[in-house]
Amino acid sequence: MSLDNPSAPNDLSAFWMPFTANRQFKANPRMFVAADGMYYTTSDGRQVLDGTAGLWCCNAGHKRPKIIEAIKAQAEEMDYAPAFQMGHPKAFELAARLRDMAPSGMDHVFFTNSGSESVETALKIAIATQRARGQGTRTRLVGRERGYHGVNFGGISVGGIVNNRRHFGALLAGVDHMPHTHLPENAYTKGQPGHGAYLADELERIIALHGPETIAAVIVEPVAGSTGVILPPKGYLKRLREITKAHGILLIFDEVITGFGRLGAAFGADFFGVTPDLMCTAKGLTNGTIPMGAVLATAEVHDAFMHGPDHLIELFHGYTYSGNPIAAATGLATLEIYREEALFERAADIAPYWEDALHSLKGLPHVIDIRNLGLIGAVELAPIEGQPTARAFQAFLDCYDKGVLIRTTGDIIALSPPLIIEKSHIDQLFGTLADVLKTLH
Ligand code: PXG
After folding, report:
1. What is the pTM assigned to this prediction?
2. Using CA positions, which residue lies closest to atom 10 of ligand 1?
């Protein structure tokens, strides 16, 4: 096919879609063609309420004029600047803004282009930090069952989702996993569950098994999102911090979902009052508009590299698009919106209404658990016997038909709306979901 003879726009065959049942989708496609505020517009002209902020990323809602203007202005001024051995002002400005909003001590920012790249970057920095400190035997990484850290090799190695791992060979060597924190006795807890802080002590077992001098870092999501919203029991993250510190192990928080106001604070680290050594971010950093991620590091981590002759590269890592000008401009505009509209505080203010509306689904058919924190919600359904995921996926399709976008993982419905959500949207979201649950088989 030549370029002056483009194929019809309804040819769906070429695009191999990510994390999608391609054949099912292409037989019956669902297309968004526009978005504004809390709503998407479908190709057949319907309005669909965004209950998931895209994929947990459009925290300020859609089509924000400030972001659009920033992208236009930057594209006109300068499209790209080399990321290695050259700089441009907006990358430095964005890094400084991130440092200023991060937990104190997280003073340095390494730019990436996605959550997956932030994870790879943090894992590599962690191992290299230990080596730079003269702790070169510390090469092991510890993740957690049901953890999601993106889809690159490091991320799926420390991650704990079997389908994301089993098809891809031997993965990274020297990785171990803590148990997840989803306990049946915490079912229907509103907010952070009370039971299970003891699960952090499993890390002591792993440390005793391998020897602390072999372990570089532990990585966890403060709240596990992708595997269906698994919350940290009260005291759990503090305990992880104490144990890692006592054994010279770095703690990495993967804040790709919990960053930028999702819990009603800038980061999960702020919400839980626990500061890690490294923090992975992406998604909400640019409101999902332009791909960008960032790893935040403490001064201790950063300064471990700042030795040797000044003219030598300290860290052999980076991407062509690290700190890309248009992404940096988008990030700056996004952070300005968060600040001007106090969106993190807004999320905290509306979270109790969200919690009550969500938990009002208790008792509806098939519902076996409900979990929430900040502007995150999950409704777990009993699977249809012999057909795991089918019931929740049907709920997704039915909600979409009724004008509401939800997200499902397994038989769990996960919700994470833009932080600009109003009470009327919350009513629409849970009203529709309740109607759907009542008619599901
Ligand atoms: N870490 C965490 C904690 C994530 O949630 C990533 C890393 C990877 O980010 P990128 O930008 O490489 O995709 C994520 C991504 C869902 C869903 O529906 C979640 C993610 C992505 C897509 C869908 O739960 N999280």
Report:
1. 0.97
2. 115
